[in-house]
Amino acid sequence: MQKQIIQRNERVEEVFHLFIKHIQNFLKEAKLNHEEYTNFVNWADRLGKKGELPLYADVFLETHVLRAMYTDKPGTQPSLLGPYFIEGSPLVESRPGEPLVLTQRPDEAGEVLYFKGSVSNTDGMPLGNIRVEMWQNDNTGKYSAFDSDAPRYNLRGHFDTDENGNFEVKTIVPLPYSIPTDGPTGEFLEYMDQHPMRPAHLHLMFEAEGHETLITQVFFEGDEWLETDVADGVRTELLTTLEDKDDHKEASLNFFMRPK
Ligand code: BEZ
Ligand code: FE
């Protein structure tokens, strides 16, 4: 096999040196002993071997990266990408006079939801004909392509906003769900006496030329897990109301993207 040539990466050096500088004070304050260090290494080894490193990082670290980057910045607050995004979702075809229908089985179980959004930039200019990617869990709380019997791209799709920056999608109401608890991430939750639940949410990603890609989530008022989301992904601006209609629910939110 050919040896891979890996070049010096000054950013890696910079970040690692900062990490060591800050971890020294942390270690003094935490008074970590060598047995605890060994326990940590063994647990992290199990985490990696079980393939749970992305899950653990997305539950316990991603929110801090986003808060450090975006708190107090104008525009819609980003939220977690999470471990359940996959590339290659189908285009949701539009039919004149009908709402877009997020990819789903003919008999998809769940309460029908019409979700409306409008997308503009932080100066208030509507962002027409830009790409919106959407994904969510189903009525069993599962994401397609992950421990689910649904087709790979079920409840996943992309489409464009209309010329005024608006969109409306017919889907189902997502459910609150438990992150997996049968591995080292679950073991960690036990140590922390923390429940494994996330509030129900829609995942959305917006891409527009000249703007920062916005990856975020939409949550629903009244969800019992909003205040204690295990992954701390909830932001007040991302809350909407599920309105009761005769045979379906409706919800909406306005999104604001940051120019680059
Ligand atoms: C999610 O949004 O589905 C998610 C985010 C972080 C960790 C686990 C799940
Ligand atoms: Fe999710």
UniProtKB/TrEMBL annotation:
Transmembrane segments: none annotated. The keyword Metal-binding applies. Gene3D superfamilies: Aromatic compound dioxygenase. It comes from the Bacteria. Residues 115-143 form the Intradiol ring-cleavage dioxygenases domain. Its cofactor is Fe(3+). Keywords: Dioxygenase, Iron, Metal-binding, Oxidoreductase. Belongs to the intradiol ring-cleavage dioxygenase family. This is Catechol 1,2-dioxygenase. It comes from Siminovitchia fordii.
